[in-house]
Each structure stands twice: as structure tokens, then as C-alpha cells.
């Protein structure tokens, strides 16, 4: 039997296949939405964790800046105590005991500086180095090499190999 007007016969199973396909697509959509929500949650958690890490790092840097000198200052306090004792006993002490106290205080200070890699520059007799020395004056000398350090006026200091203050020196020059 042929259908009038050239229409094809209706297959009763066709709507069921379409419904099954629709149900499958809706299931896949629901699964994709669940995965998207899960991924969004992971992204939000990661962003929050990153923000916490940034805040924690900023706090750590702030603390480091605020308390960077704490250990150094703790090493200097015994020298301060020694100087306070010297000032308090200055009227009662004799010159040799005051000199001994000053030497002890100087040793405390130098020990504290050494603990933090501050090294004195002692260029006596070395060749003059304008990178590490500051020439105060040139003085004639028959015994010293020309352009060598004849005398140290003020010590220089380095911190971990970096110049903090150049040594102030008198430089030898050849006699005329």
C-alpha cells in the first residue's frame, strides 16, 4: 500500500529513538554541568589558596623587614652594657682600669661585627686601591714603596665582601 501524496510510511520506533537520544544528551549535559561546577569549585579554591599564600608571604616579608636587625642588636647589647658601666664608674675608676674596660668593650663590638660578616680593612703596607681606600694625603717616604699605604687613619669595613666604608689612609710617594 502506498501513501497518498508521496508521503513515507510512519515508523513507530522513530520517536522512541529520538527520545532516547534526547535523554542521553540531557544526561551528558547534566554530567558536563556537574564537572564544570566541580572545576569551578577547584579553581575558586586554588585562587583562595593563592591569595592566602600571597598574604602570608607579604606578612613574612613585613616581619623580616621589621625584625631583620634583631639578632645584630642582641649581639651589640653587651657592648652597650659595658659602656654604661664605664660611664657610671668613670668618676671612681683609674685610667688603667678605664682603658682595660674600653678594650674589652671594643672586643665585644668587633666580635659582634664578625658574627655578621663585617670585616675590618687593614691595608697597612698594601698597594693603594682607590676601590677600597680613600687617600687623605700623600706623604713622602724613603722607606715605603710609592703608592702604598703608609698609615691607616681610619679603618674601612666590608660586609660579605661589599664595601661599607673605605679605609682612610695616608699614601706614600717617592721623595723629591
Break the fold down into its secondary structure elements and pairings.
Elements: H1 14-67, H2 70-88, H3 95-115, E1 118-121, E2 133-140, E3 149-154, E4 156-159, E5 162-165, E6 167-173
Parallel strand pairs: 2-6
Antiparallel strand pairs: 1-4, 3-6, 4-5
Helix pairs in contact: 2-3
Describe this structure as you would to a colleague.
By secondary structure, the chain is of the alpha+beta class. The chain has 3 domains: about 15-65; about 70-115; about 120-175, Head domain of nucleotide exchange factor GrpE (Nucleotide Exchange Factor Grpe, Chain A, domain 2), CATH 2.30.22.10. It is built from 3 helices and 6 strands, in the order H-H-H-E-E-E-E-E-E. It has helices at about 15-65, 70-90, 95-115; strands at about 120, 135-140, 150-155, 155-160, 160-165, 165-175. The strands form 2 sheets. It has a 3-stranded antiparallel beta sheet with strand order 1-4-5. Helix 2 runs antiparallel to helix 3. The radius of gyration is 42 Å and the shape is elongated.
Summarize this, please?
The protein is built from 3 helices and 6 strands.
List keywords for this structure.
Nucleotide Exchange Factor Grpe, Chain A, domain 2, three-stranded antiparallel beta sheet, 176 residues, 3 helices, alpha+beta, 3 domains
> What structural class do the secondary elements suggest?
alpha+beta
Please state roughly what percent of the residues sit in beta strands, choosing from under 5%, 5-15%, 15-25%, 25-35%, 35-45% or over 45%: 15-25%
Q: What is the CATH homology-level superfamily of the largest domain?
A: Head domain of nucleotide exchange factor GrpE
Shape: elongated
Q: Describe the strand arrangement of the main beta sheet, using strand numbers.
A: 1-4-5
Along the chain, the helix and strand elements come as HHHEEEEEE
**Overall CATH class of the largest domain:** Mainly Beta
What is the CATH topology descriptor of the largest domain? Nucleotide Exchange Factor Grpe, Chain A, domain 2
- For the report, how would you describe the main beta sheet? 3 strands, antiparallel
Spans of at least 5 consecutive residues with low confidence: none
- Total separate domains: 3
